[in-house]
Each structure stands twice: as C-alpha cells, then as structure tokens.
Amino acid sequence: MNIQVDNPMNVLTQDAARQFLSASALQKSTSSFFAVLSFPNFPKILTQKKEAIPDLKAAYREANNRYAEASKAREQKKKKKKEMLAKVEEAAKQEKRLPKIEENIKKAEDKLAVSTMGSESWNGYIKHVVSQVKTVDSQIAQYKAAIAKENERLEKDTESKRQETQVVNWRA
Fold it and tell me: What is the SS3 assignment for 41?
C-alpha cells in the first residue's frame, strides 16, 4: 500500500471526502480535516497558543529592555574605567614631579644657606617653591580622593549588575 501521509485526503473514504470538499464554511472544513486526522483538541490547543502570544511578546519586550539596560551599564562601566585610569595616570605624573620639586627646594635651601641669609629675593623664591610643593601635594590628594570615589562607584555598579544578573538568572 502506497499512502501519502502528508496528504490527509488519501485516507478519507469517498463519503468523507465528498463531505469535506462540499463544506462551504472554512471552520466546518477545518473541523472535518481535524476529525479525519484525529485531532479533536487541536482547535482548543490552537486557541490556547494564540492567547499566550501577547504574554510571550511582553516577555520578549521586557527581556529586550533588560538587555539594552545591561548593555548601557557595561558601556558606562567601560567609560568610568577609562576615566579612572586617566585620573590614576595623572596622579602618577604628579607624584613623579614631586621628587624633582622637593630636590629643587633642597637646592634652593642650600643656595640660600651659602648666599646671603637675609635676602628678600631668596625668601620669595623659597616661598614660591614651597607653595608649588603644597599645590602639587593638594592636587595629588585631590586625585587620590577622586580615585577612591571612582573605585567605590565602580564597586557599587559592579555589585548592582551582579545582583541584576542574579535576579534575571533566577527569573529564567
């Protein structure tokens, strides 16, 4: 017997085929079709699946939004990391300048000891160098504080993203 399974019309009796073909309404012909194929629950299943589509679309949109937010957070994290590295490099440059400035102060103090002790010009020069050292020290302290603040923000962002990932994984 050579029956084509993909064509249900092959397994219909002559009367059932006539009834199927003469059915004018689409619903009646599909119900006859499903009756032949022994799928009495198919319309119910199809209705349930159609009812689930809006929920699935909403879940898709929500997942897509969470993905977009996570992508933005990753980009912000990269940006903050670059900014932090730039500040660390700037602080390192300032720290490298500090020994040279301190050396200049020492040289100036030595020259002052050798030259006239009461000279106003030397006092002004030393005060100027000391003020430069203080300025650089305060800049270094500011950079270190900014670095510490950025590290705290980065840790908070990282922790919140970890928690979001855990919540998303938990929901999945």
Answer: coil
